[in-house]
Amino acid sequence: MPHVEIVFPAKSRFELQPVGVLGHLRSHEVRGPTVCTLVSPGTELAWSDADHFPIWPGYAAVFRADEIGGEVVGIEPGALLFCMGPHRSFQQVDARLAIPVPFGMEPEMAVLARLMGVPMTTLMTTAARPGDRVIVCGAGPVGFLAAQLFTLTGYEVMVVESDPLRRRNVERHGASPTFASIPIDDPSIVGTVALVVDCTGHEQMVLDGCAVVRQRGEVVLVGVPWKRKTDISAHAILDLVFHNYVVLRSGWEWELPLHSLGFKWEELLEGYNNSPQSIFSGFRKALGWLATGRISVDGLSTKVDPRDLETVYRDLRERRTASLFVVFDWSLLGDIR
Question: Are residues 123 and 231 in the same domain?
Fold first, then answer.
């Protein structure tokens, strides 16, 4: 069976298409069959409604390293690796962009590290400190993991989510209390919140977040505002930002470098950042916390056959999917080459 990949060839169309002949494996790369890939529902469904096609979705994969370039060190044949790979039956990446999956860890759990990386940047850059109050808005895949991250690292976390099922997911997995909306009329909360992490992209959440943070508290925009959802004016938000001294900022996950690079005189022209944190240090933390059970995700994932992709995406669009995380299981395709 030839290698295949998921393609969005046109608006709201989902297809499994052949890849063709594999390219040359360069000396610093690793390549092998994909074990599983993670669906990012918000991003991928938004891409499927875009204006420019084709689109090759997916950005989290676990694969087996069957072929290893001559300059690669530290990766053994057969090792399971996490990478930011697409929905495709094989992965071929620079070895610096792949991380060994901890021994015994289920691949469908390992791919969740990619979504943890989105709010991880906020965790690494916020002025809030452990013990401070944090409100996470939205308990979809990213918001749920954000709540877990901030709870694990010692913050007092509250989660705002309108969907009762998603609120129950949060409560069963240890991050509580939960609210259907931000409690802007509760005097015990208003003015005490150090950080609001908005994972919804909803204007009302941002406005209400600005109303509850303490002076110089942060409201971080992690969720993408894919479309306008209210008639809230910019003035309403500006008024709160100005008079409440709010730090309203982007939750851009790529604010951090991919890797931390220390200064070396002999490598000066290759660049350095001296960053204590990076995207990949965040992924390593996430994989470690998932592997040891410090991030609780049991019972929240479902594995699906890539050949059922049309049903998978349409169920996600219509919110008929009960599981919080959806993972394509590429091993179900059998012998692929």
Answer: yes
Structural domain boundaries, residue 126 = 115-254
Give the other-Cβ count within 10 Å of 117's Cβ.
23
323: number of Cβ within 10 Å = 14
CB atoms within 10 A of CB 201: 19
Name the token pair of 232.
């809230």
Q: What is the CATH number of the domain that holds 126?
A: 3.40.50.720
In terms of pTM, does the model score above 0.90?
Answer: yes
Asked if 159 and 182 count as a contact pair (C-beta separation under 8 A), the reply is no
Long-range contacts of 172-178 (CB under 8 A, 24+ apart): 173/144, 173/148, 173/296, 173/297, 173/300, 174/148, 174/296, 175/136, 175/147, 175/148, 175/150, 175/151, 178/139
Q: Residue 273 domain-assigned?
A: no
Three-class secondary structure of residue 12 per DSSP: coil
pLDDT digits (tens, 9 = 90+) for 144-203: 999 999 999 999 999 999 999 999 999 999 767 999 999 999 999 999 999 999 999 999
Number of C-beta neighbours around residue 180 at 10 A: 11
Nearest to 161 by CA among 210, 134, 198: 198
pLDDT, tens digit, 9 for 90 and up, residues 273-304? 999 999 999 999 999 999 999 999 999 999 99
